[in-house]
Amino acid sequence: MKSYKIAVLPGDGTGPEVVAEGMKALAALADRVGFSYESADFDFGGDRYLRTGETLPDSAVDELRQFDAIYLGAIGHPDVKPGILEKGILLRLRFELDQYINLRPVKLYPNVPTPIKDKGPEEIDFVVVRENTEGIYTGAGGFFKKGTPDEIAVQESINTRKGVERCLRYAFDYTRRRNKDRTLTLCGKTNVLTYAFDLWERAFHEVGEADYGDIRRDYAHVDAICMWMVKNPEWFDVIVTDNIFGDIITDLGAMIQGGMGIAAGGNINPEGVSMFEPIGGSAPKYTGRNVINPMAAIGACQLMVDTLGEHEGAAILEAAIVSTLQQLKGMGAGEMGYSTSEVGDLVAGAVTAASP
Ligand code: IPM
Ligand code: MN
């Protein structure tokens, strides 16, 4: 029997509540499909930081490297200045574990409301491959004459040929595996960012031409992509883009697929340890009330299972998510018609009941 080591970082706010439901689904799935796992909890987050002044101990990253996957709830605490936990925990793990892909499916499931009129599950089903370790996220830049009238702030976008190319290759391979329209769209801004996206565009066509002749290549500026994600989401199969554009367009994507209660993502190192998370925040005001929607966290668990190679298990869990969604009255906190843990029970029950 296959066995996996899962590091669980429940994190802040409602993170622990939603992660508990994902773990419930995982337990049901392991029984149903026949794999085993060990999990270990880590308490990194705002409370620990306020108690100890430490975001991630130096030993933590090496410890986390020993796991097959990391399952993260949410990072963000109302009493901690914005940036400290995000940089100290989330971004540090992405960088140090070299999780160079942020994979964010934008898929509208049946019975999930979308704000887009006349569009349904047929039209909203694409995947964003976001570069996850470069761009403006590296922290390159600085201040000059800070606090004076002559102050200058520079924030640079770092794009390495190697970093861009490995992201593009992942996206091409993913498009091929997904086998939907076999179209990969590069999302950039070649009309203004004439260095960064020049490199991206050249690498895109070189790599595509040389090794992915079966994949259609398409290019659009990020602003046009925002427009089309709303107007014609059915145009997209897989979108590949840099870190910041990917950050922004996937929040738009989350909204058209039913909101933060459902959107999940994976921080992937195809050669190393990957980390899976619901893409919404810690929603502190709902903490401990058993009202938050755990579906995004359960979706993150599904991505984790799939990435671990348990494809049959991932398909069973997705079917359980779909059947549970049919029963919910709404997606927002307190709107589901069920509590957080009841939604988890429904999913776990559907997994257990899935026919072989
Ligand atoms: C996300 C988040 C993070 C990001 C923040 C919390 C640093 O918005 O995962 O999309 O910008 O990547
Ligand atoms: Mn974001």
Assess the beta-strand content as a share of residues.
15-25%
Distance between the termini: 17 Å
**SSE order, as H and E?**
EHEHHEHEEEEHEHEHEHEEHHH
Strand order of the largest sheet: 2-1-3-12-11-4-5-10-8-9
* Total strand segments: 12
Radius of gyration: 20 Å
Annotation field: number of helices: 11
Amount of helix: 40-55%
Low-confidence segments, given as residue ranges, are: none
Calculate the mean pLDDT score and round it. Answer: 97
Structural class: alpha/beta
Shape: globular
Enumerate the distinct ligands.
3-isopropylmalic acid, manganese (II) ion
Largest sheet data: 10 strands, mixed
What does this structure look like?
This protein has 356 residues and is of the alpha/beta class. 41% of the residues lie in helices and 19% in strands. It has a ten-stranded mixed sheet, sandwiched between helices. Strands 6-7 form a two-stranded antiparallel ribbon. A hairpin with a 5-residue loop joins β11 and β12. α1 crosses α10, α1 runs parallel beside α11 and α5 crosses α6. Bound molecules: 3-isopropylmalic acid and manganese (II) ion. 3-isopropylmalic acid binds next to α4.
What are its keywords?
10-stranded mixed β-sheet, binds 3-isopropylmalic acid, 356 residues, two-stranded antiparallel sheet, single chain, alpha/beta
